[in-house]
Amino acid sequence: MYCNQCEQTFHQTACVNSPGVCGKNADIQSLQETLLFGLKGMAAYAHHARRLGKFDEQVSAFIEEALFATMTNVNFDVETLLELCLECGRMNLRVMELLDAGHIEHFGKPAPITVKEGTQAGHGILVSGHDLLDLWNLLEQVAGTDIKVYTHGEMLPAHMYTKFQQHPNLVGHYGGAWQNQKKEFAAFPGPVVVTTNCVLIPPESYQGRLYTMRTVAVPGGQRLDEDFAPVIAEALRCAPCEDCITGQSMVGFHRTVLLDHAQVIVDAVKAGKISHFFVIGGCDGAEKGRNYFTDYAQNTPPDSFILTLGCGKFRIRDYDYGEHLGLPRLMDMGQCNDAYGAIAVAVALAKAFDCGVNDLPLTLVISWFEQKAVAVLLTLLSLGVKGITLGPNPPAFVTPNVFAILQQRFDLRLTGNDALGDLQRALAA
Prior knowledge:
Blueprint: H1 26-51, H2 57-69, H3 78-107, E1 113-119, E2 124-128, H4 132-142, E3 148-151, H5 162-166, E4 170-173, H6 181-187, E5 192-194, E6 210-213, E7 222-224, H7 229-237, E8 244-251, H8 255-260, H9 262-270, E9 276-282, H10 291-298, E10 304-309, E11 323-324, E12 327-328, E13 330-334, H11 339-353, E14 362-367, H12 371-382, E15 389-391, H13 400-410, E16 413-414, H14 419-428
Parallel strand pairs: 2-3, 2-5, 3-4, 5-6, 6-7, 9-10, 9-14, 10-13, 14-15, 15-16
Antiparallel strand pairs: 1-8, 11-12
Helix pairs in contact: 1-2, 1-3, 1-12, 2-3, 3-12, 10-14
């Protein structure tokens, strides 16, 4: 345990033994940190939703209550803190629902679309992060020019919304997951705008071309609010992109798209034409062990479907999974916040089969990296979803005792070195 949040710490520096001076032990510290990280992730989604005019005062009230519970000498009870963590998950579901509604209302109903990857000849701007409203505002400000705008990382799902599909300046996608940005941003000749988290401190190679939005800021970058004039001027000053299309990918299997096909899916499962559904995605990263998700996806049976979301998709999408029943086996559902969509689809299928979500032929294999992934995990646990496989490394803030509770109540599992064996066990179950 390491806790330095008050004056009564050991030697007035930090309590490193369990229990600490106040009596808090490592398991209480673990649950308090889990709650704090979940709140951070939920706050990020709530921020995006509020910018689209969507908010819920019950969520705000819960944030205040939950933060109070983590203060010094307030809560020493494991069960109470665990319930607050699960309530954070329930509130996060509400926040993701609001954000989902805001996206559809502002940008139109999603639809599958094939997106060109790489660059096209002409001046370009690259947009990374998660905030679709920032992307739209930029597009409106470059409208009427010949500047071409490209998405990067988690901005890829923007292409599935009607208004983005119709905007002539949004021409494609460039690059992969966030952790590759130092190489990819350096290679892109124009300015880069990072709208949210997952920005890295830039090297000299592109310092003068990196722009961030509002609270997002880095040394060597330029911080903006709503006026993209400096970015547009920089795009016109920089060398143009070359015509270098590297491929294409299909995105846009939003929950609304899949629910439109719900009866077809149900009938196919009943007829034995679909063996299993897998949700493989989450937050990507550079740590060892993430090949587990690649190996797992590539060995899924040809009569199964893979739903993916978040930047974890970049671990599994560079492979031809083929089609099944006239649909691509790999279906990109969107950003990490679109986990709400995967939940909505699972609930709808469970209702159609008159069973619980845990009774469906469905396996969740999730990679985690930061606080938003914690919020989504708490949402899944709050819904009683069991048998989730999480990795590649266990969260360091979860103690063995707390993880044992999660294993006992939710059958939470960790990835290992045997993706194929885990897959076979999932199919057998």
